[in-house]
Amino acid sequence: MAAAVRQVTSAAAAGSHLWRRLDLLRACPALTLALFFAPVAAGLLGTALPAFGWLPVLGGTQLSLEPWQRLLLAPELPSALRLTLTSGFAASLTSVAIVIIFCAAAHGTRLFRAVERLLAPLLAIPHAAVALGLAFLLAPSGWLVRLLSPWATGWTTPPDLPTVQDPLGLALALGLVVKEAPYLLLMTIAAMAQVEVKESLAVARSLGYGPMTGWLKAVLPRVYPQIRLPIYAVLAYSLSVVDMALILAPATPPPLAVLLMRWFGEADLAMRFTAAAGAILQLLIVVAAIAAWRSAEAGFTRIGRAWIAAGRRGGNARTIRVAVGVVMVALLALASISLLANALWSIAATWRYPAVLPTEWSVTRWLREADDLGPLAWTTIALGAAATLCALALALGCLENERRHGLRVSDRGLWLIYAPLLVPQVSFLFGLEVMFVAVRLDGSWIGLVWSHLLFVLPYVFLSLADPFRSLDERYARSARCLGASPARVFWRIKLPMLRRPALVALAVGFAVSAGQYLPTLFAGAGRFSTLTTEAVGRAAGADRRVIGLYALVQAIVPLLPFALAVLLPARRAIAAAARPGR
Amino acid sequence: MLADRSVLAAPPFDDWNVVVSQARGQTVYFNAWGGSERINDYIDWVGDRVAAEYGITLAHVKLADTADAVARVLAEKAAGRTSGGSVDLIWINGENFAAMKAQSLLFGPFAEALPNDRWVDIIGKPATRVDFTVPVDGLEVPWGMAQIVFLYDTTRVGEPPRSMAALLAWADAHPGRFTYPAPPDFTGSTFLKQALYGLATNPAALQQPATDSSFAEIAAPLWPWLDRLHPLLWRGGTTFPANDQAQRQLLDDGEIDISLSFNPGEASSAIAQGLLPETVRTYVLDGGTIGNAHFVAIPFNANAKEGAMVVANFLLSPEAQLRKQDPAVWGDPTVLATDKLEPAERRKFATLPLGIATLSPADLGPALLEPHPSWMTRLEAEWRQRYAK
After folding, report:
1. Which of A53, B61, B89, B186 has the most CB atoms around it within 10 Å of its CB?
2. Range of the domain at A289
3. How many domains does chain A have?
4. Chain B residues inside the 8 Å CB shell of A538
């Protein structure tokens, strides 16, 4: 942290000199770190101090290890940890494997292009909506069983089978894969745009490599470094997910992140000390998991090099190609079906086991909610747009600055930016809230956008960083040789070339903002209602029809930027860039 | 048991009319659980009424968990904000109240100085003055009554089991068809306390603080009973629903046959909303079930204290209480002593329909007192040790 402070101060000093030249660009890294330093420090301190017994407002005025003793003695802890690790790693490994094998097997096919077009809309579906849809599909009283009951199964009442909330957390892992594999695939596709895939494959094919082997040997080594950060984000997310776990994971005990949320919510406020220690443990687990993944990468790299050097050409691998195609289509189908289930529930009046479709329909719910939905959607969109555009400007500013001035956000600075993703939100936000209250920003629009920025910028940055750094420098150099200023090169050459990753970053960032519940409630102090705060509050009543309606609206609103990202034609941007003069 | 008015600090106002005039123009942020359409609609109606009558804007901050608002007040206190807080009124009871009271996070005493407090049934409903055995001391205003009831589907259950022994026998005959919310969910914890009432040889001891020896002795029959019950529960007792709402969904899905709720009107209300089949009915156990009350309170640093008091006072009015008890609106039992009311208002209460699945007060029977909170703490801890692994 101290190094980050030095970085901020030295960069700020550099910034003050440059402000006179109105060089906003050069201030971007300092500004980003400054925007992150105070809230991250507040969030971390708000977690770390209570973890060691310090929270004067609850009478904790002495540092002690008691919270840790209590944590380690908690009867739920071993099972909760096991559940967290198995479901988190299973989900991450499966997602990465599916995405890599699918890219290797299906790149350039019609299936690949069809999947690509579907990705963005599916990414926009909130995690909780997918989880609810899956739960309804898989539950013993759910859609699958209803399709076969009672005529084929004989089950006049639902069977007592653990098909969701299973003790191993498989349903949770499946839910995570359904959401995270499309995200990774989108990141991989954006990364591939910076690598000469076609040319590399043509060479590989001419050397006799099979289509899959050629991709794995010639493309993957250059794509993987670009998707490394998104993979870590998926790992971190899978290990700390709360909303999906509440629906798909077992409850006694739940995974660690859910257990912590429960402890933080306990009426006995002294439990917050133990919960804070648990939050530090959760942070350590995520960091250790990323470190473990990183070292496994090194091992894989050695094996992979030997495998590439061995020069085996690989065959057609038709079976694998068909199989992974089926798996990918199944994942997309699950996501679509979960959305469909929510849509049907939103217009159902009565829909009980074993009816395959609602037995009574009703649109009154939509009519009743219509008045509220407008303002809620507006707040969600305005907030998402503000946070995402800020994040995009800062991320692009940092990256362009890095290219022009070599002033790079250090690795420690990067940890600062990613910290909000690593610490459990419920503990992180307590410290953040104390800071916002102290500087009187709670309940204000600025505080709200700022709090969202903390969770949006990491995703925007990791969506953009590697594609930006992989830009072929020769384009910019040629433009400079033709007399274009650096600014002109940025706006007219780089940005149009980065259109795709930038729009994907915007879309992902918007979806992240639109999904925030606790930050909106805390920083907004209950003054701002979004679709998500309304949806989560209403979901507490477990009425699938209301939940279905909000899940659907929540999915549609973030679709707007996704639709832009997909539909905005590339040619117009490039043509504009090519037009001479200003 | 009743709090003696003389020991309470003086009320925060001398003249109620001054409070009402100061409240005009204020916005009151009412932080309340937002999971029920009917309750949300009722709060909307309250908003319309206090806007028309008192010029107050009521904003319902819909929470998934009361703890989120408690944490916000706590953060404000940690940051030294002693006025201008973000929470004006909070829906609360039991452990959350005890914690906020213990940490001095509440404003007051004010409740007993509200004009409409005189209608409250402090004799017949002692839970309006003692919340989970913790004296209310004027720090919260009673809003509604609660009592544990069991819900069952008459198409699948003939004669429902009316004692803990009968429940075990029923589960043995119908494995996988009953469960209860996982403690420390308050409905789940209350089920444990209810079981203790039914199984303990000396339930009177539950009113005293639990000691190591009294807990070991009184709770002794509970654990073998639970050990036998759990394998017979839904999912073999390996996982439990998160709360009573999730369990109601299981009943509607046909995954279980018996559920439980703290609101005696829950079944009627859920049927009216299409959340349960029309064949669901309510029953209570022989010997009675545990009852308590739920309240509204004002945080110590609330920004619109006057507005919050006026809203709380309106919530206590016969008009608001009558509407709340109407099963077509919410179906939440009143905290008022209806025999104290004007004859016309008393008649309106008397002629309210019960709702299709709601027990009459006679059938509901007397509410058992909440055990001392130390029992709940110990029960939850022991349950965690035994069953949450």
Report:
1. B89
2. 74-335
3. 1
4. 34-35, 37, 40, 62
